[in-house]
Design brief:
127 residues; Trna Endonuclease, Chain: A, domain 1; 4 helices; alpha+beta
Length: 127
């Protein structure tokens, strides 16, 4: 089975972020697997909640001691940080602020976020 998100994160996103730092941020990456849309249900409620809280207030998290490989530290705390849903569409990937994503999910008549609409609400688009 191809791990689309893992491959995107390690081969594209992390090199991009190393060359183009975005400051303190919490992010969740999603891959449309070749489709022109991402179902809103692909971003789970707990992920939205963590991103939302990092953006408007604060979060702290303990990284499991069972984490494979060398973990960077025991944990982290973020306060009023950037928080993004990063979506890989077939022709581009984009950063959408969590507050804009939540608003889109609440107000959209669709059950998914199309690439066209993502381009309209994204704060950063990478071709």
């Amino acid at each position: 089975m191809i791990k689309y998100e893992a491959h995107f994160i390690t081969s594209v996103l992390l090199p991009y972020l190393s060359a183009n730092p975005i400051g303190n941020a919490l992010w969740e990456a999603k891959h449309t697997k070749g489709k022109d849309f991402l179902p809103f249900s692909a971003v789970e409620d707990h992920q939205v909640r963590w991103l939302h809280n990092a953006r408007i207030s604060a979060i702290s998290y303990k990284i499991s001691d069972d984490a494979r490989g060398q973990k960077p530290s025991d944990g982290f705390s973020l306060e009023k940080s950037n928080a993004y849903i990063i979506i890989k569409y077939p022709d581009f990937f984009c950063f959408i602020d969590i507050l804009d994503y939540e608003k889109e999910e609440r107000t959209s008549t669709r059950r998914s976020l199309t690439s066209k609409r993502a381009r309209e609400i994204a704060c950063k688009i990478i071709l």
